[in-house]
Structure to design on (477 residues):
């Protein structure tokens, strides 16, 4: 019965997405939804896209293992990224009326910078989307009580998300995500209320978590610990900024105020609501400590699904798994569209400049299909945890893309050579340290971003652009 009801919900989501696809008449409709989405939809998209599998299954498991100290990157770093993007980056980028974030690098610098950074952005999504596919496999495995294997569940889940994303693009993502956010909020609040009662009350759960040291989040006064803490925070907070998924929500906004405040409020909402899965996870340790201990040794990501499946009535299970699937699908659809759009617009179209609008639309849809196959294969083959896949996704964009974006927007002297050296120094240093496995006081991506900044400064002073490109940018004020 549970599996049947959840299947019906999936069919409804597909139907809703395909219905929204009727509004797609051009590549612009597919990629930006005609830049016509209102505040509630933008806020919902920002919140629901980031409130994904890693939030419900990944960081809740990490919380049980490491407490708040293990969550510096997400949700703290992720929330800072969204607020920072909304308050600082959203307005100047929105005013440029771009199709993708990669277009900024072509307009501000040159084709070579656009190509390299766009490829970095595309690669960075491999781990993030794969994390959502992995979570879908896990959910189907739990729902079917093992009848559907993890790999089979991944294929089924990826196929569901692919169908409506392939046809409807941003319109389908917007409509389905808005509905899914409602399901997410209502579903998790209901389950949390019941779990709190089962565990002895909300106050009791919080007191026990505090007594267990789970709320300690600041680093110790040890240099190595502090640098590791900073690296985890900055990797997500800054590395997530030069990403197409955040930009495309800003770019689809109806107005400048919606672009700024929809993103900012979405980040605030994400930070506070991310506490709900943490509460649920710790409540599980009080409701069934023996089962939780066993799962912690085998796969801590199963703690929440197992708690609901084994200890709650069927109607609560329907609510929870419906909310969980909403969480995962909303993130998967948005993060599936982002790299496909970037590849089609900034890699393929850049090589074929005379491409028509219909050809671009076809290319983007084809890329969505191919990228879905790639991330599904990666999810099946990798043994990384959901949280690790998401956390590692932003290293490449922090090392290679953040400095060229920030300098290009807010430093008039930033030049083509500066951007080129920033990419070369940042990515080169990061890759060299990752491959060598050198033991450093800080993470390789943090060293990379420092070298990237040095490259930007050196290159821009050696060879300024002399007024080229910067004139095409509109003032952020």
């Amino acid at each position: 019965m549970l599996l049947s009801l959840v299947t019906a919900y999936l069919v409804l989501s597909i139907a809703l997405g395909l219905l929204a696809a009727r509004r797609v008449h051009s590549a612009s409709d597919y990629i930006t939804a005609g830049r016509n989405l209102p505040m509630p939809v933008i806020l919902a998209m920002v919140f629901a896209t980031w409130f994904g599998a890693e939030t419900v299954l990944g960081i809740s498991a990490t919380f049980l293992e490491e407490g708040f100290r293990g969550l510096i990157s997400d949700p703290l770093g992720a929330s800072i990224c969204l607020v920072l993007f909304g308050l600082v980056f959203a307005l100047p980028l929105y005013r440029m009326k771009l199709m993708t974030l990669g277009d900024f690098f072509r307009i501000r610098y040159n084709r070579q910078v656009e190509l390299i950074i766009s490829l970095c952005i595309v690669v960075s999504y491999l781990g993030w989307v794969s994390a959502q596919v992995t979570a879908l496999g896990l959910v189907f495995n739990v729902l079917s009580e093992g009848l559907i294997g993890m790999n089979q569940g991944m294929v089924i889940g990826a196929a569901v998300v692919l169908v409506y994303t392939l046809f409807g693009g941003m319109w389908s993502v917007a409509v389905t995500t808005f509905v899914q956010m409602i399901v997410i909020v209502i579903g998790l609040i209901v389950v949390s209320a019941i779990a709190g009662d089962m565990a002895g009350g909300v106050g009791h759960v919080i007191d026990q978590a505090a007594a267990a040291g789970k709320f300690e989040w600041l680093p110790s006064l040890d240099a190595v610990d502090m640098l590791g803490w900073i690296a985890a925070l900055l990797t997500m907070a800054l590395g997530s900024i030069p990403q197409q998924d955040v930009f495309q929500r800003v770019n689809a906004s109806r107005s400048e105020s919606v672009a700024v405040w929809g993103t900012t409020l979405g980040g605030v909402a994400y930070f506070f609501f991310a506490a709900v899965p943490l509460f649920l996870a710790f409540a599980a340790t009080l409701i069934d400590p023996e089962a939780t201990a066993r799962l912690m040794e085998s796969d801590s990501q199963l703690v929440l699904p197992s708690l609901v499946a084994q200890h709650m009535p069927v109607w609560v299970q329907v609510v929870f798994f419906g909310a969980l699937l909403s969480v995962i699908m909303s993130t998967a659809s948005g993060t599936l569209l982002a790299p496909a759009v970037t590849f089609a617009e900034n890699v393929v179209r850049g090589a074929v400049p005379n491409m028509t609008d219909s050809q671009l639309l076809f290319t983007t849809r084809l890329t969505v299909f191919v990228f879905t196959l790639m991330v599904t294969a990666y999810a099946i083959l990798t043994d990384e945890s959901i949280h690790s896949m998401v956390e590692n996704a932003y290293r490449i964009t922090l090392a290679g893309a953040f400095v060229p974006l920030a300098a290009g927007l807010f430093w008039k002297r930033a030049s083509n050579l500066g951007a080129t050296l920033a990419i070369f120094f940042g990515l080169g240093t990061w890759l060299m340290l990752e491959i060598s496995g050198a033991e450093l006081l800080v993470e390789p991506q943090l060293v990379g971003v420092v070298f990237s900044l040095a490259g930007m400064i050196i290159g821009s002073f050696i060879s300024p652009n002399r007024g080229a490109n910067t004139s095409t940018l509109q003032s952020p004020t």
Summary: The domain at 2-387 is CATH 1.20.1730.10 (Sodium/glucose cotransporter).
